[in-house]
Every structure is written in C-alpha cells, then in structure tokens.
Automatic annotation (TrEMBL):
Signal peptide: none
Keywords for this protein: Cell membrane, Membrane, Transmembrane, Transmembrane helix
GO annotations of cellular component type: plasma membrane
Membrane topology: Multi-pass membrane protein
Protein's name according to its UniProt entry: Capsular polysaccharide type 8 biosynthesis protein cap8A
A Pfam family reported for this protein in Swiss-Prot or TrEMBL: Wzz
C-alpha cells in the first residue's frame, strides 16, 4: 500500500515540533553571533590607484593606439606588482616580518574593463598596516618599472588613506547570523520530520487503519476505574444520608 502524506499532516508535524524548530534556529543564530563577534579576527581593506598612461610630449600625442598599448600593458603590470621583484623590496622597507609570499596573499590587483587605472587592494587585520603595504607597493612598483621595462607611464592616482574609524570588510556578523538562521530552520524542520517518521506508536483510529489496512468499525471509550477509597467514601455518604 503506497503511503501518502497530506499537506495537513505536514503542518501538523511542524506545529507539533514548533518548539524544537524555534530552539534550533535560535541556537544557530546565537552561535554564529558569538563566533563572528568574539572568535573571528576583523579584516580591513584599503586600496591605492595607479594610472597607466604614456607621457605626453610635444612630439607625442595621446592617440587610441597609445591607449590600447597601455591597456595591454596593464595585465603585465598586474603580474609584476605581485612578483618577488616588487614584494621583496616592500617587505624590506616595511620590516614587518612578512615574506613576499605572505604579502602576495594580502594583495589583490584589478582594473575595470577598458580602464587605464589599476587598483591595488590590501587586506590586513591592522588597517594602518594595510595602508602602509598598499602605498609602499605602489611606490616601489612606480620606481622599479622604469628599470624593469624602461617605460615611464605609471603614476599614483590615489594613495591609500587611513580612515579615522575604519570598518572591517569581514566578518559580517549580520550576514553570518542570517545564514545560521536559515541553516538552523532547515535543520529543525528536518529533525522534526525525522522524529515523526521514527515514531511508530499508534495514537488514533486513523493510525490503526493505516497499519492494518482495514476500516475501524467501532471504538470503546475509556472506562474510569474506581478505587476502593472512592467506593468506601460513597458507601459512607449513603449511610449518613440514611
């Protein structure tokens, strides 16, 4: 016999285990909040912008061909910025005890499509250190590119600045708690249906029909058993009345 579950039974199960579902959701949100606010280290981000552009002289005018050449160089520059040739010098100048590989993991180089501006972003647990890394990397790159590629088409457009009250980019406690709430809700619903599936006790006449596969013809109402104390009390009351 194929078993089917009606929508009403689903809502009945959810209502029956509502306390469990709410409890798991709240616990998940609390755990996510505690971890986000106390255990995870805040990470700050800052960035500096580098402009790639040919130096204009009286004999050289800014043309589309020059711009396309600069755009093609940007991909090369992005690799050079994160290369040991640049980051080794950055590590020496800052003297933070960081290697070129560690600096590489903190730096992200990007640029908008068809843009001559290269964005160097740095993430660190200390916002002041992030600013120092970004600006030092840009300065070293600007100086070294003259020797590496014999070109002078790089200038710092916007250096990184330390804000008075920097805001970390991660973790995001509210987002983490929202995700935890969804996970806790799904877990609670899953456990609720699992408990209902594992509960094989017979609670109603419908359960009997489902198990035996035969209709219920009648039901016997529960009969309250009278104790000897109750019988004795009634007998004593009758005698007093007589």
């Amino acid at each position: 016999m194929e078993e089917t579950i009606s929508l009403q039974e689903l809502f009945t199960t959810l209502k029956k285990r509502l306390v469990l579902i709410i409890a798991l959701t709240v616990i998940a949100v609390i755990i996510a909040g505690v971890v986000s606010y106390t255990l995870l280290t805040p990470i700050y981000q800052t960035s500096t912008q580098i402009l790639v552009n040919q130096e204009q002289t009286e004999a050289t005018q800014l043309t589309n061909q020059n711009i396309q050449t600069d755009l093609q160089l940007i991909n090369t520059y992005s690799v050079i910025i994160k290369s040991p040739a640049i980051l080794d010098q950055v590590a020496q100048q800052l003297d933070l005890g960081l290697t070129a590989e560690q600096l590489n993991s903190k730096i992200t180089v990007s640029n908008a499509e068809n843009s001559q501006v290269v964005n160097v972003s740095v993430e660190d647990a200390d916002p002041a250190i992030a600013v120092d890394i970004a600006n030092t990397t840009a300065d070293v790159f600007q100086n070294e590119i003259l020797e590496l590629m014999s070109v002078d088409n790089v200038s710092i457009l916007s250096p990184a600045m330390l804000k008075e009250d920097p805001t970390p980019i991660k973790p995001n406690p509210m987002l983490n708690m929202a995700i935890a709430a969804v996970i806790g809700l799904m877990l609670g619903v899953g456990i609720a249906f699992l408990l209902e599936y594992l509960d094989t006790t017979i609670k109603s006449d419908q359960d009997i029909e489902d198990v035996l596969g035969i209709p219920v013809l009648g039901m016997i109402s529960p009969i309250e058993e009278k104790t000897d104390m109750q019988e004795a009390a009634k007998t004593s009351s009758k005698r007093r009345g007589a």
